[in-house]
Amino acid sequence: MKRFGLGLFLVVASTFLVGSPLHSGDTKDKGDVEKGLEVKVADLEDFTARTKLLTVNNISLKEVVNEDIKGFSEFTVKASVKNRTSEQVHYIIMIAGLNAEKKIMWTLAPRTALGGDDQHVQEEQILVPSGTRKATETLWIRLVNR
Predict the structure, then answer these.
(1) In sequence order, which ranges of the chain are alpha helices (DSSP H)?
(2) Which domain holds residue 38?
(3) Residue range 9-16: average pLDDT?
(4) CATH number (domain holding residue 74)
(5) Residues 121, 79: Cα–Cα separation, whole Å
(6) Distance CA 99, CA 139 (A)
C-alpha cells in the first residue's frame, strides 16, 4: 500500500509540475528564460520570451562582410523588447551563439532600461570572423530584468 501511495503521489505531483507555469517564456522548450535556455536559430521566428515584466521576440541575426578588415564581418543581433508594466524596467539580454558542437562562437549582453508601457528594438553589433552566422546553430538566451 505504501508503494501505491508513493506512486500515486509522484503521478499527481508530476502532473501538477508539468501543467504549472514554472517557465517564464512561451518557448518550444518551455524553459526558463530568466535562468537561460537554448533556442535553435531555425526556431527564432516563432520564439517569444516572457518574464513578469518584459516580452522579447523577433530576434534576428545578420552578417555583412567588413570591407576594411579582411576575413571579418559585422554581425548584428536585433530583438524587439516590450515593457508590459507601467514602471521603468532595467534589463540585460545575455545571448551566446553556439555552433553544432555547442562551442561558443560569440556573445552579447546588451543592457538598458525601458520606460513604462513602452517598446523598442535592441540592436547590438560586433566584429566576428566571416562565416560566424552560418556556423551559429543555437542561441543560449537569458533575460534578467529589475
Answers:
(1) 2-19, 132-135
(2) 23-145
(3) 34
(4) 2.60.40
(5) 6
(6) 9
